[in-house]
Design goal:
Elements: E1 2-5, E2 8-12, H1 20-31, E3 35-39, H2 45-58, E4 64-66, H3 71-78, E5 84-88, H4 91-102, E6 108-111, E7 116-120, H5 126-138, E8 148-154, H6 158-172, H7 188-203, E9 207-210, E10 229-232, H8 239-242, E11 249-255, H9 258-266, E12 273-277, H10 281-289, E13 295-298, E14 319-320, H11 325-331, E15 333-336, H12 346-350, H13 358-367
Parallel strand pairs: 2-3, 2-5, 3-4, 5-6, 7-8, 7-12, 8-11, 10-11, 12-13
Antiparallel strand pairs: 1-15, 6-14, 9-10
C-alpha cells in the first residue's frame, strides 16, 4: 500500500469563524500533499480580502489560491471538478454544495451543525455546569456550529440552574449593549430571525428570561445585538425548537427521567455536538452509547473542537466525514493498494485457471457448508 495526495482540494468556509475555518482544514490538506482553492464567506469581506492578499504574497497561485465573491461565485466554486471539497456552513447550503459536487463525482466533507443538546445530570455540580454552559453559549453570541441549542435540566434543579445562569452573565457581561465583549448578530437578517424566535415564544406563553440589565434585551436593527435569552420549557412546535438557533438564545427543558431525554434526542436529526454534565460514569456511558452525534464533550462545552488530535465532523444532517490530525490526513489523501507479484505464480499455484478439474471441484466442495 502507498498513500498519495488527492490533487486540488476546495475549501468553502463560513462567516462565523472566518480565519480558523480556513487554516484548520488547510493544515490537513497541505499535510497530505495537496494544493488548495479557498472560497471564504462573502459576509466577512474584509477578512476575505486580507486572506486573498496574504496567500498571494506567500504562496504561488498553483499552490493556494483564494476566490472571493457572493453566492454565484460559491455556486460556481462548488461545481468545479475538484479532487475533494470541504464545506462548512448551513445544512440547506450543504445540500446544494453536495448536489453540485455530485455532477463531477467530487467527494465531499460537510460540517453542517444542527441543534446540539446538553444534558445536565442529577449529580452534577450545578453551579459549575451552568457557568460552563453559559460561557460556551455566549461565545461568539451563540453563532457557532457546536453552540448549545437546548439544555435538559433535572426538574428539581431547574431554578438553581437558572439563577446561576443569571449570576454568570452578570459576572462576565455586566452590560450587553455597547459592550464589545458580547458579539452582535452577523447582520440584520439574522437579528430579525433570532428576535423572531424570542417574540414567538413570548406570545405563546413560554417563560422567557433575558440575561441582561433591564432595557438591554435588543439593540437597534443597525447594531443588531441581542442579549442571551433563556426560553424555559418551550413547546416543541415553536420555531426555536425546530430551527438551529445560531444566536443568543438557549432553550431549557426540565426532565425527570434520563431515558426520556435520550429518546427525545434520538427522535430528531443527529446534532454536530452533544454535551453531558455529571459525575456518574455509568450515566456518562449510557448517554454516549445510546445517542448519535458528530462529537461529544463531557463536563465541557466545545472543548472537543479545540483538540486537534480528535476527529471533527458531523453525522447525518450535521454533516459527513472527518478532518483534524490523522483523520484529516486520511480524508485528504488516498490509500492506494499496490500488489506486486513475487516469484511464485499465485493463480497457478491455487489451481484456479481453466480448464477446471477435480482439484477446483474439491476446493469448492470444501467451502460449501451443508
Amino acid at each position: 500500500m502507498c498513500t498519495i495526495n488527492l490533487g486540488v482540494v476546495g475549501i468553502m468556509t463560513p462567516w462565523n469563524v472566518p480565519v480558523n475555518m480556513i487554516f484548520s482544514p488547510l493544515a490537513d490538506v497541505l499535510g497530505a500533499g495537496n494544493r488548495a482553492m479557498i472560497k471564504p464567506s462573502e459576509y466577512t469581506p474584509h477578512t476575505a480580502d486580507i486572506m486573498h492578499k496574504l496567500f498571494a504574497q506567500y504562496f504561488e497561485e498553483s499552490e493556494i489560491s483564494v476566490v472571493t465573491g457572493g453566492p454565484e461565485v460559491g455556486a460556481a466554486f462548488s461545481a468545479l471538478p475538484l479532487d475533494h471539497l470541504i464545506f462548512t456552513g448551513a445544512t440547506s447550503i450543504g445540500r446544494l454544495v453536495m448536489r453540485a459536487a455530485a455532477e463531477n463525482m467530487v467527494p465531499v466533507t460537510l460540517e453542517l451543525g444542527g441543534k446540539s443538546p446538553v444534558i445536565v445530570g442529577e449529580d452534577c455540580d450545578i453551579h459549575q455546569a451552568a457557568e460552563r454552559i453559559i460561557t460556551g453559549k455566549s461565545m461568539n453570541g451563540g453563532q457557532l456550529c457546536v453552540s448549545p441549542d437546548y439544555c435538559f435540566v433535572p426538574q428539581s434543579r431547574l431554578e438553581a440552574f437558572i439563577n446561576r445562569c443569571k449570576a454568570v452573565i452578570a459576572e462576565q457581561y455586566p452590560t450587553v449593549q455597547g459592550n464589545p465583549d458580547f458579539v452582535a448578530c452577523i447582520n440584520e437578517r439574522h437579528f430579525d430571525r433570532v428576535k423572531g424566535y424570542i417574540t414567538e415564544a413570548t406570545k405563546q406563553g413560554a417563560r422567557v428570561i433575558p440575561l441582561c440589565p433591564p432595557g438591554e434585551e435588543f439593540s437597534s436593527k443597525k447594531e443588531h445585538k441581542i442579549a442571551l435569552h433563556l426560553v424555559v420549557n418551550p413547546d416543541d412546535a415553536l420555531a426555536c425548537m425546530q430551527d438551529e438557533i445560531f444566536g443568543a438564545l438557549l432553550n431549557i427543558k426540565s426532565y425527570d427521567k434520563l431515558q426520556d431525554v435520550i429518546d427525545f434526542i434520538n427522535a430528531r436529526e443527529r446534532p454536530l455536538a452533544l454535551y453531558y454534565f455529571g459525575r456518574d460514569k455509568a450515566e456518562q456511558d449510557k448517554v454516549i452509547n445510546e445517542t448519535h452525534s458528530g462529537g461529544v464533550a463531557v463536563n465541557a462545552i466545545a472543548l472537543h473542537v479545540a483538540c486537534d488530535d480528535l476527529p471533527f465532523g458531523g453525522s447525518g444532517h450535521s454533516g459527513m466525514g472527518n478532518y483534524r490530525g490523522r483523520d484529516g490526513f486520511r480524508t485528504f489523501s488516498h490509500a492506494r493498494g499496490v500488489y506486486r507479484e513475487g516469484f511464485v505464480d499465485m493463480a497457478k499455484l491455487a489451481g484456479t485457471l481453466p480448464p477446471y478439474g477435480q482439484k477446483v471441484a474439491n476446493m469448492l466442495e470444501s467451502q460449501i457448508k451443508k
